[in-house]
Amino acid sequence: MTALTLATYNVNGIRARLPILLQWLEREQPDIVCLQELKAKSADFPQAELEAAGYGALWDGQPSWNGVAILARGDQPLEIRRGLPGLADDPQRRYLEAAVKGVVVASLYLPNGNPWPGPKFDYKLAWFERFIDHAQSLLESGHPVVLAGDYNVVPTDHDIYNPKSWRKDALLQPESRACFERLLRQGWLDALRACHPDEAIYTYWDYFRQRWQRNAGLRIDHLLLSPALQDSLQEAGVHRWVRGLEKTSDHAPTWIRFKAPA
User: Fold this and answer.
1) Is Transcription tagged as a keyword (predicted)?
2) Of 75, 113, 115, nearest to 94 (Cα)?
3) Is 161 in a helix, a strand, or coil?
């Protein structure tokens, strides 16, 4: 049976990082890609360049901030929805859902929530609640689903190099972690942690204080699998080499490989 590779990558500015994105796509050739933080208007999305690289794309852009996309190698993602139910009027482009190669795929960029406490953290929790509700409906559909993206949540202290200096950050707040835990209790599988139960494995390294060089990272990019896909999971990992490139994003692509649905 064919295996598929699905990756999520906070590209941190798709125009500025386009050479890096194309280099990664050429080397790793993921079948499905979820991108976050496009930081570009929809009209400025590099559709032609990605098509030349062999990828069909869906995207929802926003100038300077946010923005999400889904790419498919040798295929065109079929749009299901953009934006979460109940958030149609939200100007922040943070959620895109499509059918790709027999799988329902969501690319999400959960609000950062800093500074904590404050209105940005309140917005994070409100968005999270909408997402949890929608995730439940996706779970109940019985379809093979992957919820992939930058969740801006460090699930446990095992997912950060040293939690001490981050205790006042929105990413580590008990409310943020409780929301993530509620998702898992619905029945979603945290694929990266399932494949690496004891490893200190990170997906994000801040640009400051030599964090990359010291491997002082955080795990905030997650791929959650519905029950229909969990037995098909083969492996998961992080393409760390991308983070080591010049002028790269502060995130590294995070990926899973699974047997394609029949």
Assistant:
1) no
2) 113
3) coil
